[in-house]
Recover the amino acids of this structure.
């Protein structure tokens, strides 16, 4: 069941949105793989993520929490526009459904455990077919009535920062104990743009980690200067056609040659804000939704102190 804009149950106070894969990847690489279940299976990503959530809830006390998931980490509609999009991360191409992403062998088996634990706890977990977690986050943010904290290690989501609406990004620098609170003043100081301008900056600069080529010869500083001069990508491209506009011959030539890329890149770079979200209760749970199932998972996977600490924090 999809719900109209602004109709998510539970989203009335501060909403915290987790870029879940970004966080469990960090947990996986930040917690030793000697952290194992009774049967010897690594559970470092599982326990690390539970510790992350515990610290986030303790420090920021959200009223609502959503673990946003990648139902499709490389949507076909983005690949059709820019074929190189995340192409270097493909482990196996599939004729039906999303391509398989290259993921460490000992992380993949932990993802279903993470999903099971979140469900048993009653933490809303949302992924939508054909969309990335970024798009789910973008849509929740667009529809939220109150302030939003987006927790991610992905700078792409800086584009959602909006001081007027109280939308900020909490970017982990070391675990989640040290977070960079990214607001518009921080963005302007670091990149020379506000939240709305960050997507244009990323489009022009490119991003090798996502397979986005950018405009050759237009780096981050030049992109920021062009945006300051002409406002946005549309203004920059209009300047290419204006012989009086203050562009160097090299910039004019490179931007002109990049028209096919610039024409399609905005849809790829900007997160979607119209994802058909399911009807979910996003209220931060005080007690587990499925206590018996949670006990079983805790015993099977040896979740120990990580889970117990989180349960105490949720119940406080």
């Amino acid at each position: 069941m999809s719900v109209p804009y602004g109709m998510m149950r539970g989203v009335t106070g501060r909403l915290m949105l987790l870029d879940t894969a970004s966080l469990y990847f960090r947990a996986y690489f930040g917690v030793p793989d000697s952290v194992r279940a009774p049967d010897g299976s690594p559970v470092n990503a599982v326990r690390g993520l539970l510790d992350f959530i515990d610290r986030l809830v303790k420090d920021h006390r959200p009223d609502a929490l959503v673990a946003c998931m990648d139902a499709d980490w490389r949507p076909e509609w983005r690949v059709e526009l820019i074929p190189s999009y995340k192409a270097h991360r493909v482990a196996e191409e599939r004729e039906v459904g999303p391509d398989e992403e290259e993921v460490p062998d000992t992380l993949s088996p932990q993802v279903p455990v993470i999903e099971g634990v979140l469900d048993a706890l009653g933490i809303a977990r949302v992924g939508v077919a054909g969309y990335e977690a970024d798009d789910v986050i973008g849509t929740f943010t667009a529809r939220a009535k109150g302030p939003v904290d987006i927790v991610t290690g992905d700078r792409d989501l800086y584009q959602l920062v909006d001081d007027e609406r109280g939308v900020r990004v909490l970017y982990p620098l070391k675990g989640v104990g040290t977070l960079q609170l990214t607001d518009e003043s921080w963005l302007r100081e670091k990149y020379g743009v506000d939240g709305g301008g960050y997507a244009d900056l990323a489009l022009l600069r490119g991003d090798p980690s996502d397979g986005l080529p950018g405009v050759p010869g237009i780096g981050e500083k030049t992109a920021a200067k062009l945006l300051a001069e002409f406002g946005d990508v549309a203004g920059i491209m209009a300047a290419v056609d204006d012989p009086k506009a203050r562009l160097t011959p090299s910039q004019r030539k490179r931007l002109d040659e990049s028209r096919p890329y610039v024409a399609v890149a905005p849809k790829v770079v900007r997160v979607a804000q119209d994802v058909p979200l399911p009807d979910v209760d996003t209220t931060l749970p005080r007690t587990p939704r499925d206590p018996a199932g949670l006990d079983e998972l805790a015993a099977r996977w040896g979740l120990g102190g990580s889970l117990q600490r989180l349960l105490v924090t949720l119940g406080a």
User: Anything to note?
Assistant: The two ends are 32 Å apart (CA to CA). The longest helix spans residues 44-60.
